Amino acid sequence: MRHHCPGYTRRFLLGSAAASVGSALLPSRAFAAEAPSAPVALARCRSYDRGELLPVMTRMFDQLGGLQKLVGGKTVAIKINLTGAPRDRLGHVPAELAHWTHPAVIGTTLHLMGIAGAKRIRLLESGWNTADPIEEYMMEGGWDPSPLLNAAPRVEMENTNWLGGAKQYSVFTPPNGGYMFKRYLLNHSYEDCDVFVSIAKLKDHATAGITLSMKNCFGITPCTIYGDGSPKEEAGILPRGGRGSVIHAGSRQPAKIAPSENDPTSPRDGGYRVPRVVADLVAARPIHLAIVDGIETMAGGEGPWISNCYPVKPGILLAGTNCVTTDAVGAAVMGYDPMADRGTPPFETSDSTLRLAENHGVGTRDLKRIEVLGARIEDLRFPFRKAPRA
Amino acid sequence: MASFADWIPLRWQAGPLDSAAPELARPESLHFLKSSPINCLVVNWQAGGPQDEAQRKALTRLLGAARSQGLAVVGLVKNAAHQAKEAGLAALISDVALPDADGLPVFTSKTSGEIKADVVVARKALWPRIPGAWRTEANRQERADAGPTGAAWVDSNGWLASLIQAKAPNSILWLAPELPKETSLLRPEHYQLAAADAAVYGARWVVDLDADLRSKLANQDARALSSWRQIAKALEHFRKLEKPAPVQAKLVLVSDLQGPEEHLAGEILNLAARRHLQVRPELMSNLTAPKLDGVTTLMLLHNRSLTPELHSVLKSFIDRGGLVIVPASFALPPSGLTPAGNHDQRYDLYSAGKGRIAMARKPWNDPYQIALDAHLLMSRKQDVVRLWNAGSTNVRYSGSAGNGKVEVLNYAARPMGHPMSVWVASPYKSAVLVPLAGERTSLEITPKNGGTEVALPPFPVYAAVEFRG
To answer: Which terminal residue of chain A has fewer beta carbons within 10 Å of its beta carbon, N or C?
Structure first.
């Protein structure tokens, strides 16, 4: 049940979520040195064939303690990554083999969650510049959503780029007053769940250095409020444009229904702003399970709109119950030092989301404190800066 | 002389009515047309003003040369034939009746309302292009036009051609757009696009060349002749094509195609094209049950009384499982409907028989929203063709399950940054690429979602894929 206060719904209660999934998985401290750790399952998986994918993912979830403990009897919300317009492709490469989470990874997760007793599962994404149903968005991208809808009992989809089926937006509050905004207004689906999952793609990112399970959550912000074409006062009815002006460039503020940024004198630089918004979001809306699809992906950027990027086949899957530890291992597998900061690859022109999220108390990025289960990082390392074209 | 259907017209401005250089009226100015597909000249003949006589005199020698080159000459007139027959003209173009035509065929340039003519010349056609991409020093400060889709706005004529053909299915259609004012930016590819934009929809472009190119061609300038050869190659390519097969559309737009309905239909067709949604307009009075074979959705623009025959056709369509989208205030049947929710607060839904009715809650006013809603109401499950990396393109899919053809028009007139992929809903066994220039080549096909996907190489203007079942 949601709780209401004038103008907003109350933010997701960490306490209730913590009771559901175990407090060890959730951020509780505000200092990097004390940021929690959690194991990360790392596996070789060379194809999306069910015969290979299902046993690999089953083993990975078992290594993390089993899905039943996490999702049994729970309502699960899964943020997937369908970034960019559905008709964009990297050359002729279908989106799922370059910049979108592959439907086989999503479908296998749904299937296993269904077996684990998930009560209801909702797939979430904010479709680019549209409030169309996500099923329609997938079809435009060339997918058939039916297998996903039938992969487990009670699977639904919602486009979270707008208000959707609720009467009001849900309010989420990052710790310490937030790096960029003290509160974020999101679609109700991010509140109406017991368990929140991010299924991301293993990619470089032109603005934030890398995009894995945390950066995937950049897309949970509705463009009716944080979009280029959102009205100045109230939220727009339909989303218009992307998040370039409000979040990347800071050339305008969100619709006034949401708080303006904390410090209007802060740098108007995407490399400063985007990692901070992402760190705020994953602290305010905790991720209980992070899954990163690195089987087939792209190097050099997050989507085909970035110059000089190309398809690659790392053949890797990652999963973890802490998004910072999972992304830290992901960064290491990509050939980057998760302890790196601005000026050092992959953060040549950005701040490190890993560090910012760590400082919010979400999790540690220090590999010495992270237990890696299954494969070893050094055995699966796939340096993205030197990656061979697939 | 070739029949009207075979005429490939060239607009030639060569007299005082055109303020053209006198050299363009010299017989030699037409030499560059030898060995080209052009077999018809369109000239200004009468404007109802004091210069008509001078125009006639200026063209005398040119007309003689044209005839000796085997070119039919068609005169554009305002309201009088003005001795056209004596001068050897083969036909006239006017938007009014010409009592003094003396038996000469009169092509109509009237495209709204009812159309009756062997040849319809659509002078309100637009020069096909992405207007916002045409940057000159003069217009650099102007804002690029963005369409409601969020993508760049495209000027195209498929909607206009489809609309005219729905009203006058037996007429030959010529598209005669005015040249863009930024003529310094024109490349041969832009002219090729004008030819393709008409041909894909079964129309003929009235070739129009900018003044500088015309002048250089008349003087046999080598570079201009090279450009002309590229243009002529496209004209020849489309000359050889058979008349396009009917569009494969699961959505049919039904209207009387008069007045406001005609305008709305045109806008919806134009904006649906930006979503690559295949739509066929149908004149209400011509609609019969067989015309709805294979159609899943019918959008009725008409909200006045329907004939009993049309009622019967609609009822049968719904009973078979069809979706009918109707405007607000449409008189729904008094019984047999079950409320079935709403679509985004904009349409009330009803189930009836095996089908559905979606009735707009408010009068329609935003054509893009209408097209978008129609697409969502029918669902992209009904898509017959999808393209990727094709933001500045329109596509036409024709043929049948056993023999399909996809034609892609690239309004950027230069290859895309990323090459395109095309998917069609039918499971074909082979595909052949037919480019505007170059050889036919087999394409590798990938079965996907019950259909067929192919990867296209980069192309600047036009490409067709012929599928075989």
So the answer is: N
Encode burial over B380-390: b for 16+ CB neighbours within 10 A, e otherwise: bebbbbbbbbb
Residue of chain A whose alpha carbon sits nearest to that of B391: A87
Q: What helix, strand, coil percent values describe chain A, rounded to 5?
A: 30, 15, 50
**Alpha helix locations (H) across A285-341?**
323-333
Question: What pLDDT, on the 0 to 100 scale, is given for residue B140?
Answer: 56
List the beta bridge partners of residue A77. Answer: A122, A196
* Dihedral over Cα of B122, B128, B133, B135: its sign: negative
Using the beta-carbon criterion (under 8 Å), do B391 and A304 form an inter-chain contact?
A: no
- Identify any residues that bridge with A185 across adjacent strands, giving them in sequence order: A171
Average pLDDT over residues A259-272: 97
Test the B interface: residue of A92, A128, A305 with most B CBs within 10 Å: A92
**Geometric angle at alpha carbon A191, from A185 and A193, rounded to 5°:** 155
In this prediction, residue B70 carries a pLDDT of: 95
d(CA A40, CA A289): 10
Q: Which residues contact A38 (CB under 8 A, 6 or more apart)?
A: A24, A25, A320, A321, A322, A325, A363, A370
pTM of the entire structure?
0.92
Pure H helices in B1-87: 52-68, 84-87
Question: Which residues in chain B have Cβ-Cβ distances shorter than 8 Å to A241?
Answer: 150
pLDDT at A12: 32
**ipTM score of the complex?**
0.91
Please give the biggest Cα pair distance in chain B.
74
CA terminus-to-terminus distance, chain A: 47
Angle at which helices B211-218 and B222-240 pack, to 10 degrees? 100
| Tokens at B338, concatenated | 């079950």
Burial B415-437 (b: 16+ CB within 10 A, else e): ebebbbbbbbbbebeebebbbbe
Burial of B217 (0-12, 13-18, 19+ CB in 10 A): buried
Closest-CA residue to B82 (of B41, B48, B117): B48
In the sheet with B251-255, reading across from the earlier edge strand, the strands are B279-283, B251-255, B297-300, B323-326, B355-360, B347-352, B338-343
Size of interface A-B (CB pairs under 8 A): 45
